[in-house]
Automatic annotation (TrEMBL):
EF-hand domain mapped to chain residues: 100-125
GO MF term list: calcium ion binding
PROSITE patterns linked to this entry: EF_HAND_1, EF_HAND_2
Name of this chain's protein: EF-hand domain-containing protein
Source organism of the structure: Thermothelomyces thermophilus (strain ATCC 42464 / BCRC 31852 / DSM 1799)
Length: 150
């Protein structure tokens, strides 16, 4: 019994990724080799397990069923202070890369079905565009939407 207890503790320690070092105890720690999507979900949304549809819904900030360029930028943290040095040209380039990857019917926006198909059927993943983990506060966005509508 004692031995199995030790094994369980060791496995739990691995799963939590050394959660007792430092402050991120509620943050799932992902492997260094995890995709950008997995890192983003772990670091920004504290979610270790998700599917393409929930990833899509979480980043369809206005809930209209498709991703436009601004939502792609926000997903990548490009509406955040930490990326304010990124030039407009680079932002347009990032939107272009992501749109090219996901917008399979070329209508300029990424639908939920397109996203789910590319991720789950084609087995692709969102590339790391070098913009960090993708900071985007939903509360902040609500405020901005409200602000812009005035
Ligand atoms: Ca949308
Ligand atoms: Ca489309």
């Amino acid at each position: 019994m004692r031995l199995s207890g030790i094994i369980v503790a060791a496995l739990a320690g691995r799963a939590l990724g050394h959660g007792d070092h430092g402050s991120g105890s509620q943050r799932p720690v992902v492997d260094e080799n995890a995709s950008w999507m997995q890192k983003h979900m772990a670091e920004e949304h504290h979610a270790a397990d998700f599917d393409a549809a929930s990833f899509f819904a979480l980043h369809d900030f206005d809930g209209d069923g498709s991703w436009d360029g601004e939502e792609i930028l926000r997903t990548y943290g490009l509406m955040d202070e930490s990326n304010k040095h990124v030039t407009e040209d680079r932002k347009a380039e990032i939107v272009g890369v992501i749109t090219k990857l996901l917008d399979t019917n070329r209508d300029g926006v990424v639908s939920r079905d397109e996203f789910v198909h590319v991720i789950e059927v084609e087995g692709k993943t969102l590339p790391d565009m070098g913009t960090g983990p993708g900071h985007h506060g939903d509360d902040e966005y609500e405020y901005e939407i409200h602000h812009w509508e005035k």
